[in-house]
Design brief:
The chain is mainly α. The chain has 3 domains: 52 residues, Orthogonal Bundle (Arc Repressor Mutant, subunit A), CATH 1.10.10; 44 residues; 48 residues, Arc Repressor Mutant, subunit A (Orthogonal Bundle), CATH 1.10.10. The chain has 9 helices and no strands.
Length: 147
């Protein structure tokens, strides 16, 4: 007979696979908790034991996303995952320092050659903008490619 896993076991299982924000873990565990108070107590205990850390989650998530996305997209994603604005801005701020190089690499992988006309240039700009790169960085890349 299969034994039902405890709420703590479920939480530790999620955290063993990857970092989670408090809001994310709450959402995943809520269907299994008997009461909201039980869930809050467990989350508080995990934070106290340093098994759950929003700062660690924000840093890890920003690092993973920085390969493909700009600082604006990273910051938006972190906020959507329940990270406070200041922490999200801080984690995304580290990505801003290397945004030009990362955007250039994303542009090279996707397009590789300068846009032959305005329509294609607009397409490339929209692609990079959707990835969360700043307009200033996009303009630098597209101008640089034409030189």
């Amino acid at each position: 007979m299969k034994r039902e896993r405890s709420l703590r076991e479920r939480a530790l299982g999620f955290l063993a696979r990857r970092e989670h924000s408090r809001a994310e873990l709450r959402r995943k565990l809520a269907p299994h908790a008997e009461t909201p108070e039980q869930l809050d107590a467990l989350l508080d205990d995990l934070v106290q034991r340093k098994l759950l850390s929003e700062a660690r989650f924000a840093e890890a998530r920003a690092h993973v996303m920085s390969r493909k996305f700009g600082a604006a997209r990273i910051e938006h994603d972190l906020r959507a995952k329940g990270i406070p604005d200041a922490q999200a801005a801080s984690a995304a701020g580290e990505a801003r320092a290397t945004e030009f190089e990362r955007a250039l690499e994303v542009w090279r992988r996707k397009f590789g050659t300068p846009a032959p006309d305005l329509k294609q240039r607009a397409k490339q700009a929209r692609f990079l903008l959707a990835r969360g790169f700043s307009a200033e960085v996009i303009n630098r890349i597209l101008r640089h490619r034409e030189d």
